[in-house]
Amino acid sequence: MNPGELICYILAGVVVISALVVVLTANLVRSVFLFFVTLFALAGLYVFSLADFVAVTQVIVYVGGVLVLMLFAFMLSNKELLNSLRQPAAAKLSMLTNIPAGIVAAGVFTVLAISTKGLQLAAPSGMSLFPAGMLNAGDNTIHLLGVRLMTNYLLPFELASVFLLMALIGAAHLARKGKEST
Amino acid sequence: MIPLEHYLLISAALFCIGLYAVFTRRNAIQVLIGIEFMINAAVINFVAFSKYDKAKLGGQVFALFAIVLAAAGVAVALAIILNVYKYYKTIDPGKIDELRD
Amino acid sequence: MLACGAAVIPLLGAIATYTFSKRNRGSGIAIAGSVLTFVLSALVFYTTWDHTAIHRQISWFTIGDLTFTAGVLLNNLSVLMLFLISGISLLVHIYSAAYMKLDPRLPVYWTCLGLFCFSMMALVVADSLLLIYLFWELVGFSSYLLIGFWNTRQAAVLANKKAFIINRIGDIGFLAGIMVLFSQYHTLDLVTLFSDHGLVASSPRIGGVWVGATGQLSQAWLTIAGAVFFFGAMAKSAQFPLHTWLPDAMEGPTPVSSLIHAATMVAAGVFLLVRVFPLFDQTVLLLIASIGTFTAFMAATIALAQHDIKKILAWSTISQLGYMIAAIGMGSPESAMFHLATHAFFKCLLFLSAGAVIHELQHHYAKSGDTTDPQDIRNMGGLRKKMPVTFIVMTIAALALAGFPGTSGFLSKDAVLVSAFGWGAAEQNVFSVIPYLLFVTSLLTAFYVARLIFKVFFGPAGQEELHEAPAPMRWPMIVLALCCLFPLFSVNPVSFESAWIMAGFYLNAVEAGAYHTYVPVLVSLGGTAAVFFAWFCYGRNRSGNIFTDKGMLYRFALNGWYFDKLYLAVFVKPVVLLSRILFGFDKKVVDGLVNAVGSLGLSLSAVSRWTDRYLVDAAVNGLGSISKTIGNFTRNFQNGRVQYYLLATVAGVLLFFMFTYFL
Amino acid sequence: MNLLSVLVFSPLVAGLIVLVLPASLQSRYKYVALAATILQVLLSVLVWVRFNPSLGGVNNEHTLQFAEKLSWIQLNVGGDSRLQIDYFLAIDGLSMPFLLLTSLVMFVAVLSSWEITTNLKGYFALFMLLDTAVMGVFTAMDFFLFYLFYELMLLPIYFLIGMWGGVKREYAAIKFFLYTLFGSVFMLLIMVGLYFSVQDPLTGDHTFNMVHMMNPANYVDGSLFAKFSGQLLLGIPARSLAFIVLFVAFAIKVPIVPLHTWLPDAHVEAPTPVSIVLAGILLKVGGYGVIRICYSIFPEAALGYAWWIGLIGVVSIIYGALNALAQRDLKRLVAYSSVSHMGFVLLGIASVTAEGISGAMMQMISHGFLSVMLFFLVGVIYTRVHDREIANFRGLSQLMPQYTFFIMVAFFASLGLPGFSAFIAEAFSLTGAFKSAGVNGLIPRWMALGGSVGILLSAAYLLWTLQRMFFGQLRLSGGEPWRLLLTDVTIREKIALVPLAAMALLLGILPGVVFTQINTSVLDLVKLVNP
Amino acid sequence: MDQQFPDITGTFSAVTGGIRYLMPEIALVAAFLLGVIIDLFFSRRFRHAVLICAAAGLGAAAWLTLAAGDDLPADPLFYGMIFSSVFSNVFKLVFYGVALLFLVLCFFNRQLQQHAKGTGDLYNILLVVVLGMSFMSMSINLLMVYLSVEMVSVGSYLMVGYISGNSRQAEASIKYALFGGACSAIMLYGISLIYAFTGTLDLGEIMVRGLENVPSLSSATAITLVLAGIGFKLSFVPVHFWSPDVYEGAPTPVTAFLSTGPKIAGFALLLIFLMTFFVAAEGHRFFDFKNTISVIAIMTMVVGNFSAVWQDNIKRMLAYSSIGHTGFILMGFVSLDHGGFRAMFFYVIVYALMNMAAFMLADYVEQRANAVTATGYAGLGKRFPLAFTIFVVVLISLTGIPPTGGFIGKLLIFSSVWGQYRATHALLPLAMLITGAVTTVISLFYYLKIPLNAWLRSGDTAVTITTKNGLLVYTAFAIMLILLAVGIFPQLITAYLPG
């Protein structure tokens, strides 16, 4: 096991553990903070998968955008935050009611694990068809991505812009106060 | 480089953690976080397998789109959650149950 | 042609009276019509009697390959009946004109009477069983109308309902007989079926199989066919056990009783049996003879105890019909027909006389505001001085009924009894009692009719201002009285064999032998003795009564052997009860079942809703709901929680997936 | 334009006219409807006159009369099949009498619609729609078209009962609708299955043409409903299952015990004109469907189940009659008597003899006239005092002599008094049933005898009713007000009643009027079913 | 770079060459952009400017689609992103039609028109949603699939929560957003697995072969997850839970739109997805689509119809009924090669029409008499005779009784399933047939509630009647006429259907 792999596993461990804490903790502040950690660890994993641009995007978009938004939302509904901080009895009971959810989630995990275990995926079947082969550590993925986005993925790219505009307009509409409303 | 199966396993774990969050968290924003976990689980797969797809780089592109779309989705969802908060003074999805059989 | 005319005129008369009844109340038209009918019938009778039978038919309708015909068959049997019916009906029409004069619904009466005459005459001339059945029912229908003519009287409407329904029971038998014959021979034409070389006569019975022209049936069906025809006749001719309607039918106007329930309609059963006579095999004949004899005897005993003048006559009618039926059963249809003809006259006359008495008494009571029953013989007496003509004619009729020499009844009753003894001699078993029973019955007959006469006309007079019935009522009675004497039927007052009716019907000669001489003598002597006995009981002093009112036998007889009660308990009530039960069943069970199927939709959706609400949620909260702390939570288990939706969804997909791939 | 098309669609036109007429002319709507029905009566008489009774029809397209066949829907549904649906109207002896029956009954129903006072526009529009649908059912020779009209009958009836009905009208209307739809949805399935099994011999396309469906040669080899493929469907031979499903669908309409329970409710709650149509026509649609579709298309299944059908017939006869005996409501009594009388139809049909089927046809027609008369008469009383309890009336004959006359005619006619049509009909249904054992051995003789008990029972309940309601001393539970309200029949009512009574009488005395027209077809049908 | 793109001009021309097949979509985008600008600057002066703009855009798109006619590309466009075919054109026309009807509904909806924040954004969002639906019907690449589904989904959340005038609308929108977010995440994960197993995002033979190479369990897992995502759009069982709540809570025009447009887009997507597997590799062994969809169809019909029976709220009832119809249409997917194509297309078109009409009338009644429940409809028939007459015909069509388009649709579906049964003699098609028949009867229970209450019962007379918007009824009337015409002459539609 080389250091790279070790770091990979550590990152993976961080991802899973922090995610678990995010999900299980009753403390909302801790949960949001650990979400932050998970996202960073994920970005690290992406880097190790030779997807540096994706990792950067992850950090910028998630940490810079999503997380900030969420914090705003928390603050805007801070009463709720406080409420959920002190509800130990409810939390205990919710543990009980969460058991079926846990079973289902575990079931899904089992199915996923079984269906992905032992696959000979060193080179997925379809991929050998591509002459360009595997990505190497030295490749300029940003360059490659740029070219792809302007050729193969031009249509989705443009469409995404329309989509974002709509999301912007819509979210703004929902959030803003009415012109004539009092 | 860790084996691809391990990536799949990690992503599966993250997916299920997200799923669990979606099922159980009593705060709409945490449910959203769960959804983000699920999306990120998919992103792990895309990114990991994108290594073999140098020609099209479909995985990475998809990952980018997924992240961006997720962000937009979160923005909209948060706007909606704030609206809900306005009426219900709570964002516990379990308590928002006026509409039911 | 003439026969058709004779048959149709009453119908036209009926329609005419109904249509033009406003002005002259219809009596004129009705009587004119019936005169015309009588003249035509007489002509037909004159031209056809003892000539070759006339058979005219037209195609009526076609079903499948078979064409049904409608037509007339005029042979001795039908023209005799035709003549008889038209004659009596003419007299009854005239009588009715006076009897019913004051009734507000007289036109309706004429219409119904006309309808009856039409159906009765059509019945006798019809040439196919289908037509006979048709008119058979119409006769029943018009009888229904006439019995219930005074339809505001509860008893009358109950009686006509009873009459019709019991007749219907018989009709089913008739219909069943038609079905058997039709499926066997594919025709219902009387000539084709029953003539000497007709299908019935020529179809062999081989080894238990009854081979017909177009099919074959087990021989049991032959017996059944005969039995069901007899069953039909039983109802119409009021034979045990379908006799109970006739006494009740006396609720109708008396002329109706006399025409329909004494002279004509009830004879239709006898007529039918004579028509289909070749069909009967030994078993059926024996059955017919037994039933007829039993009915004759039973009705006579019942007649002994009745108080209502018309009821006595009604039971007597049943008894006499029993004679005729028995005669047929004993293979002597000619004597049955003979007795039918004579009986028609004297019984009609008896009724008309009774009607005259009732009519006068009713007037009397109506005037004095008395509510005494004008029909109860216990309230009568000494009328011979007030109504001498009635007395005389009724006595003649009574003598005829009792079978005294010199009357027509003597001839015909002898004919029946002689043939009975002749037949009985051949029988070795218990059936040989039949002739003796008939003989006893004739004695009983003499007794009860004497009782009637003595009670009504003798003894002290009770009522003061009674007088003879009006002329239109008197004259028909006188004419009928003349017809009750022997000359009309036979030049020889003692030999029934010289009667022209018998001669006209010699279907098969009876070996009478010695019975021919001593039976008439015995009947006459016995009858005389019975009359004297009656005189002893009722005529001389009215206190003497061999039947105590308390006696069990007496009550048994008075109530007609309790058949009405029996039927009510055994048939009517259970059927009504069954219908109630079935209706309850229909409402609760059938409808409920179907509703259940219908609401299966609802219940299924309840299941799915239940599943949605409890199963899914319970799966979600499954373990939690086991714990008792969950009580507070139950209201949160309701739907409407998006996370549960998601959980259910994923669980559903997961389950589905696992079922598909792991099981 | 073809006579049949005019016959079918003229009421629809009248309905549209009613719809577009302004509400200010509300009181005139009924005259529009009346005119349409009179026109229909005239047209159907014309059809009757021009009908050639020597042509059989049934399964021979060339001997169908007044045929109009237009290509209607040609759908390429992909795969190997093309949907070929024709606008195919024609009649033969089996349908022709129903045209006259329908038009006459509709005429009477419109006359009895005078009692309707609310929402006239909707009422007459729906009524005319119903008229069109019924006419269509009797003339359609394409299964698809038949089904179309068949379903089209549902909705108007639903609303007519539901909107203008009695107290429990909702329940009755829904019950009726669900019952019938339940049958017809499965009919649809069988219809589609049949369509896949049958090919037009000329074009080779799959077809809904009923005449083609009757010919075993037109079935695709090995297809589900091919006669000799012997395929199983849910463990039952496919053709038998199809027969059962179709039979149940139609039998619900007939109705048979135990699927009859919609009928008393529907009748009791329906307004008089709708009762009239229900009893007079819709029940016949069931019988007609059994003959036209079940028996003609699945003859061997029909023969196989003849025993059961006969049994159902007998049970219906007796069960319906016994139930009628228990009724206290006059209309319900009449409704149950319908169940009983329609039992004869099944018994006659089950026998597959010329007599039986002719008797069944006659019974349908006769019952058409008589039940209409009965319901009309019940309606007369009901409109006067809004009560139908038998026990609340007594001695009506004194108050309403003419009414009593009509009701006696109706009662006696329907209890099978000779001289009226019901007698011929019942006698021949039973005779056919009896004969069947000797001819084709389909149903045992006791069934015919059992059925004849129904005749007795019908006499019992009808006479009992007569005695209770009309005879005896006058006594009304409503007292003096009722005495004033219960006036005798009016001219309009007589106009409605007289033709019905006349028809019943005419057909009773001259049954040949009907038998001649249907005879060839009946023979052909018998030959088709039991070659 | 050059070694990867030897012919950069060719690449660009390949991209630009596809543009001419995207004219309708471009029209939509143009209208969207124009609408945004109009909304910003002119909406105060011209209240309905954006509406007109959106309508013009939709009209133009529809016209362009029609005008393109047979001018269809032979190959996929944009490097295998989309494929424009007759199928997609039909679907697109349905979408545009539905969207136009939606605009009509919006125009007459008081609640929307009085919305404080204006309606302009709604129309703009609508255009993007329609754009997304367009692409859903054309996508043959999983990225495009995901993107277009997200466009439709997010747009739909916005539309549902657009007014947020009361708690119910807010609740509906959050439920929709959370459920939808989770479902799209699940679908995304499924897509990622497919990508992991096959290395390609193109829906085509390579993907199918790639899925064959991994154990069937693995491919089945991936496909199941994707199907669950598609199922969210279709709201079939068991992914249907959201729809009753959302349909009930959303503004009626939005409900009308959601129950038709996106749902039909979901069908288009399912069709593409299935065709990939049916066409590319007959007899692949890793997933039994037919049986799965059969079972889903049966369950969906049962759940939808049976649950609807209990509903009193009209919109909720129609929501369940639309679940039932989904199940019915799914039957057509099972028997695609036995006429299911046409049947499905026909049914979808008729379904769109009748559902829109039903919601239009529900909206009309809601606005004029303030009645939203079946019991609240009591006695209204006599007050709005025309509206309820139309309603009855529409409901008859929804039930599938002749002579309406709904009946023909049902007939065609039944026919195709019979065809399927004939070919396979399997139990499931038969079970589907019987379920279809039974649930048709069941559906009558609830559809009948409306005429039952409106016509057969009498309600309180004190119903406040406000605003006259007859045009809505006349639009519904026109739809009714179309339904009847189609019921009697189905060629009117079938003549133009592919398959």
Automatic annotation (TrEMBL), chain A:
Reactions this protein catalyses: a quinone + NADH + 5 H(+)(in) = a quinol + NAD(+) + 4 H(+)(out)
Localization per record: Cell membrane
Membrane topology: Multi-pass membrane protein
Transmembrane segments: 6-25, 32-49, 55-76, 96-115, 153-175
InterPro entries: NADH_UbQ/plastoQ_OxRdtase_su6, Nuo/plastoQ_OxRdtase_6_NuoJ
UniProt keyword list: Cell membrane, Membrane, NAD, Quinone, Transmembrane, Transmembrane helix
Tagged with keyword Zinc: no
EC number: 7.1.1.-
Molecular functions (GO terms): NADH dehydrogenase (ubiquinone) activity; quinone binding
Keyword Ligase assigned: no
GO CC annotations, alphabetized: plasma membrane
Record function comment: NDH-1 shuttles electrons from NADH, via FMN and iron-sulfur (Fe-S) centers, to quinones in the respiratory chain. Couples the redox reaction to proton translocation (for every two electrons transferred, four hydrogen ions are translocated across the cytoplasmic membrane), and thus conserves the redox energy in a proton gradient.
Sequence similarity: Belongs to the complex I subunit 6 family.
Name of the protein described by the UniProt record: NADH-quinone oxidoreductase subunit J
Organism: Hufsiella ginkgonis
UniProtKB/TrEMBL annotation, chain B:
Function: NDH-1 shuttles electrons from NADH, via FMN and iron-sulfur (Fe-S) centers, to quinones in the respiratory chain. The immediate electron acceptor for the enzyme in this species is believed to be ubiquinone. Couples the redox reaction to proton translocation (for every two electrons transferred, four hydrogen ions are translocated across the cytoplasmic membrane), and thus conserves the redox energy in a proton gradient. NDH-1 shuttles electrons from NADH, via FMN and iron-sulfur (Fe-S) centers, to quinones in the respiratory chain. The immediate electron acceptor for the enzyme in this species is believed to be a menaquinone. Couples the redox reaction to proton translocation (for every two electrons transferred, four hydrogen ions are translocated across the cytoplasmic membrane), and thus conserves the redox energy in a proton gradient.
Membrane-crossing residue ranges in chain numbering: 6-24, 31-49, 61-85
Annotated PANTHER family: NADH-UBIQUINONE OXIDOREDUCTASE CHAIN 4L, NADH-UBIQUINONE OXIDOREDUCTASE SUBUNIT ND4L
Family under the similarity heading: Belongs to the complex I subunit 4L family.
Name of this protein: NADH-quinone oxidoreductase subunit K
EC number: 7.1.1.-
Subunit structure: NDH-1 is composed of 14 different subunits. Subunits NuoA, H, J, K, L, M, N constitute the membrane sector of the complex.
Main location class: membrane
UniProt topology in membrane: Multi-pass membrane protein
Subcellular location as annotated: Cell membrane; Membrane
Organism name: Hufsiella ginkgonis
Family annotation (HAMAP family): NDH1_NuoK
From TrEMBL, chain C:
Claim: Transmembrane is one of the keywords in the record: yes
Record GO terms (molecular function): NADH dehydrogenase (ubiquinone) activity; NADH dehydrogenase activity
Membrane topology (UniProt): Multi-pass membrane protein
Domain NADH-Ubiquinone oxidoreductase (complex I) chain 5 N-terminal: start-end pairs: 60-109
Signal peptide: none
Classification via InterPro entries: NADHpl_OxRdtase_5_subgr, ND/Mrp_TM, NU5C-like, Proton_antipo_N
Membrane spanning residue stretches: 26-46, 80-99, 106-126, 132-152, 164-185, 220-238, 259-278, 284-305, 312-330, 336-358, 389-411, 431-454, 475-495, 515-538, 644-662
Protein name (database record): NADH-quinone oxidoreductase subunit L
Taxonomic source organism: Hufsiella ginkgonis
Automatic annotation (TrEMBL), chain E:
GO cellular component: endomembrane system; plasma membrane
Record organism: Hufsiella ginkgonis
Protein name: NADH-quinone oxidoreductase subunit N
EC number: 7.1.1.-
Keywords, in A-Z order: Cell membrane, Membrane, NAD, Quinone, Translocase, Transmembrane, Transmembrane helix, Transport
Primary residence: membrane
Enzyme class: translocase
Family assignment from sequence similarity: Belongs to the complex I subunit 2 family.
Membrane association type: Multi-pass membrane protein
GO biological-process terms attached to the record: ATP synthesis coupled electron transport
Coiled-coil annotated spans: none
